[in-house]
Fold this sequence. Notes:
This protein has seven helices and no strands.
Amino acid sequence: MDDMWNIEAWDGVRRFFPDNRDGSRIVVTTRLSNLASLFNYSNGHDMQFLDKAAGWNLFSKTVFGDGSCPLELESVGEKIVEGCRGLPLAIVVIGGLLSKSELTKESWGIFEENLSSSVNLDDSESCLQVLYMSYK
């Protein structure tokens, strides 16, 4: 269950997941660390922002698979990854779009400019802008 915001939501659906003691598990994601502690038998895992190297690695795999980034695109690619601010979702969305675009500095520059203008927005607006780019 993705992006749960309060325990009342869990209480509303809990009965549909009976504990039959058969080893089944439910994964719940939330942005609220205090909410995770309210789940029975929870094994919480705090996600961290990706550092520069991990972000670049995720971006490279998303865009090029097992290949590598052409040298002429590395600097703009690094700016794009930096603009994603360590958010894996943003890196994967932008990387997925770039994997289908032309491998030119000009093409990637358009993404970098759009991303740069989104970075100064608050977190929720910035995320929406990144996702909106995939619809454009």
